[in-house]
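Appendix B, example 12.
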Amino acid sequence: MKHKYSSIMASSLAKVVSVAAIATMTVNIIIPDHKQSETENRPLQTFPSWNTEHVLSGQYTKDLNTWFSDQFVCRDQNIHIKYLIQKTFGVKEIQDVFLTKQGLIEKTGKPNKEQLERNLNAINAFKQNYPELNVGFVTAPNAVSIKKAHQII
């Protein structure tokens, strides 16, 4: 008797999941694409155009996958729920963004040494060209540096 009940439950669950998947795909196709994510401040993938070259190279499949990820129904709500779950479990950093009690702080990249050298040369050249001026330099820390120094992150 237990086996019969289990197979009925498994069959019912498979039907419910199948109907939900088909309904989600249908809604995703019907709803017009969003052009911009205000939450992430970036453009979203539009439905890829089909051509033989992209299909054969595999680019069409990659673009279709990105489109589906970007245009998924209730995408922002799902991202928010995932964020809340990660924060609940004590995750401090998600994809180079620090989660703090005050909000989200983006991790800064490593300094470009070539650009730093150009900037220092420009400051020194300015000082040499205008010796009568008192030239100074201040490096201001960003929020990540301050919070790390105070062990908030």
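The helical segments are 2-30, 52-57, 59-71, 75-88, 113-129, 143-149. Strands lie at 36-37, 42-43, 93-94, 97-100, 103-106.
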